[in-house]
Amino acid sequence: MPKYYQHILALAFAIRNINEDPHILPNITLGFNILNCYHTAKMTYKATLSLPSAQHRFIPNYRCGFQNNLTAVIGGLLFETSANAATILAIYKIPQLTFGTFSPAESDNMLFPSLYQMVPKEVYQYVGVVRLLHHFQWTWIGLIAVDDDKGDRFLHTVVPLLAQNGICYAFILRTTKGFHGALSFTVHTKEPPGFQSFVETINPWAKEDGFIQNFWEQAFDCSLSIDIGSAESKTSCSGEEKLHNLPTPFFEMSMTGHSYNVYNAVYAVAHALHAIYYDESSVMLLLHKGVADLEQVPQPNPELSVPPSVCNDNCYSGSSRKKKEGRPFCCYDCVPCPDGMISDQEDMDSCVQCPEDQYSNKQHSQCIPKAISYLTAKEGLGLIFIFLAISFSLITALVLGTFMKHQDTPIVKANNRSLTYVLLISLLLCFLCSLLFIGRPGRVTCLLRQTAFGIVFSVALSSVLAKTLTVVLAFMATKPGSRMRKWLGTRLASSIILSCSLIQVGICTVWLNMSPPFPEMDMRSLNQEIILKCNEGSAAMFYCVLGYMGFLAIVSFAVAFQARKLPDTFNEARFITFSMLVFCSVWLSFVPTYLSTKGKYMVAVEIFSILSSSAGLLGCIFFPKCYIIVLRPSLNRKEQLMRKK
Length: 645
Hints:
The chain is mainly α. The chain contains 18 helices and 16 strands. Strands 1-2-3 form a three-stranded parallel sheet, sandwiched between helices. A three-stranded mixed sheet has the order 14-16-15. A two-stranded parallel sheet has the order 4-5. Helix 3 links the parallel strand 1 and strand 2 (about 95-100). The radius of gyration is 54 Å and the shape is rod-shaped. Residues about 280-300 have low confidence and may be disordered.
């Protein structure tokens, strides 16, 4: 009783203010009558039927004696009370305003056409609970519902709402009793001016208030009765007790949410009557109050820890959620993102692919731009190749100068000076063409790289083949009656070099016309680098160029191998055999190594193969001769060359 007595005070306070306000229902005085239904359907029906009857006489459907001019009814706190009263009031077309909780069934205008709601619908409270759970990051909860129709309606509404908002429940418990210690949303309230002063003027001896004595005795644990027996059991009330001394859970001096709804219900009826009597064109004004702003949830004290309520720990950035089979959707495993994919937020359903020009960091939490990679002249490997290419070029030029300086000596003449010069010049160009592979690939360099390398090497191999055939023919020409002498001379050697080189030129021409090489950015071969390279355009034509050079090398090796046992006068075939063996070994190992590497190291493998095979030809063929020319000039005489073993 003490806790709900404020509802009666709010009703009386609103009626008093309206009667004293000249702007609302002037010359009309509002009155009220309060009946107790004792929370039973039978007493609720009886109290409701007594409202339209004559005062102090219970005669339903008859007008006799002094009549109540009943305008509206304000229902009870429980929705069952309002529903039972609405059944009777609907017959008399008497509107009822309810200030308590509201079930979805009572929201049906077809069932209760004269029932009006002063509080928000119950579903808004469920939405508020969901937002509160999200605020504290509670996604793994239990549901406890009363085992009756209200509990069924609660579960029917809440379970889908939780699923839509990513919240799972571990269990559903149905109970026949209520429970304490739960969080709830307070009803919206606002303190009307003068309410506390009105409360403080309450007189426990007032005869017109049938509830004040019971309230006063329960609130202050005293007795207002003058009966001697009652006075002995309890302390007598003085009437001077102060309501503000009562504890807040027992009685509140400030207006509560439900009392504020009663206050608004009275004003809604007053405004409706005012519109009917004084302004027929106006629309009846009902003071519906919205739900409190649930977004403005106060931030928790950082010193206080909020207990977690989740099925499992969050999946942090760098991982994604994977549903556990047979478990609710908010129970999941955390799977690390694969290379090239990231998740930059917690509890992501899937990882996001990085753009092609970016890669994921070690934590897989962000994408990092890839570095552009190509063999440059500023890095160590590029500097080594440049040094080797220039060094071998200078050595080749020095050998060429030595041979030109001693061009009239027997050892230079015996090995065909013109072929020697062509071979040395082509080797010099082979060393220099390796520089085309160093630096940022461009349109011109991509066109020249493989074609220049293929043609220059073909000239060098053609020269070696011509020298080998010259050795063989020269030996055969020394036999009596041999007709091979007519094949000796520069015309045969020039024909061999020209024809073999033109074939390679033709292959390169077809290649450039069909599918020429072009610069390309390879973003997929390496995870953390963008490879800037030359796309060969046609891999088949590239391997045709290599295959043709291999064919010339094998033919030169075969011919030189057959001539390796010729007399010492023509022993250059031995050096050519060994040089071709080195050449073929280098390029046979080049193919698998080239295919197994990526990025700038593919270019490094090709540069190494060019330099090593060219150096093999230079060293095996010319260094023995340079040794004789420079260090052993005594052996560079005709008599020494003609001596046989």
